[in-house]
Design a protein that fits this description.
Blueprint lengths: L1 H22 L1 H14 L5 E7 L5 E7 L23 H8 L7 H6 L4 E3 L9 H10 L7 E3 L12 H12 L4 H17 L18 H4 L2
Parallel strand pairs: 3-4
Antiparallel strand pairs: 1-2
Helix pairs in contact: 5-6
Amino acid sequence: MGLYRKVVKRLIDTTVAIIFGIVLIVPLFIVAILIKLTSKGPIFFKQERYGKNSVPFTLYKFRSMTDGAPVKANSEFSDIKSYVTPFGMFIRKTSIDELPQLINIIKGEMSFIGPRPLAITDEKVLRLRRQNGGDQVLPGISGLAQVNGRNNITDEDKAAYDAKYASHVSARVDSLLVMETFISVVKRDGVFKLESDNRSPKKKLLEKNHD
């Protein structure tokens, strides 16, 4: 597990991100043009996020919200859809807005799989991660918390899932999470926080496959 975590995972991430960037360059360019044509504001959303060892970095996404949307965590919005542009709704539901994070992966700031890179507005989860070791790995575009509820689980559960992933990093776990992510994207699970959701997070993946 040590070799995979320290060397192989980073090599795979960088190689795949470069290949994806080359293959998707034309579609990404079209998305950028449509964002510019359909709403006011910049093409990219850039924000300081916290990564491995809670070190800050600049995260890149396609902008999906209006230029005047308030800066706060998604979970704090009671009416977030009213701030999302029509085209932004499409790229959010299909997770296309996440693709510029290929830049972050190539730069070594992120991985495909890992804890979600959070902003200072998610201070509680960041603090819990520092306490439980969930910040000891690179953050990812998708991860254990994302496929188990994404925006519809508590801060405590998010941090717990992140810590569990950090202690079980392996090629097998990452492969399972890639498959789960594909399913979640197709089903569009957890794109927006539900107004009322009392469900317990699904117990799967690491809970099912590891002690």
